[in-house]
Design brief:
The chain is mainly α. Helices cover 79% and strands 0% of the residues.
Length: 117
């Protein structure tokens, strides 16, 4: 994960955790009938807006980074395995053609029977 995206993600996680704590305090103070309930509910609503904005910031930062720097991707292990198998089969075909035991497309080219598969 690029540094800019990681920074935005850490910021979003911190804001989200504080919002959850604040919402829990608002809920508990509402249950007890405390004077703190109303201000906490209002600030929880505002914090929810800020938390939503911070999550969108992570998404936008990631999109901008990908657009500017290109997507950094590494093949998954399954893709690597498929590619390895293809490579082995191609090598085996080439080796068979060199030995004359191919029986593949190369033999058909020699006889002129490309139309018959």
């Amino acid at each position: 994960m690029p540094d800019a995206v990681r920074t935005a993600a850490v910021r979003a996680v911190l804001i989200l955790s504080l919002t959850i704590i604040q919402a829990m305090i608002a809920f508990l103070s509402t249950l007890t009938g405390s004077w703190l309930a109303f201000p906490m509910v209002l600030s929880s609503v505002a914090s929810t807006v800020v938390a939503t904005w911070s999550v969108l910031d992570v998404w936008v930062t990631r999109q901008v980074w990908n657009q500017r720097n290109g997507v950094v991707s590494g093949p998954s292990s399954s893709a690597r395995q498929i590619r390895r198998e293809r490579r082995r089969s191609r090598r085996a075909e080439r080796a068979a053609e060199r030995d004359g035991t191919g029986g593949g497309i190369g033999d058909r080219r020699k006889t002129g029977d490309l139309s018959r598969a």
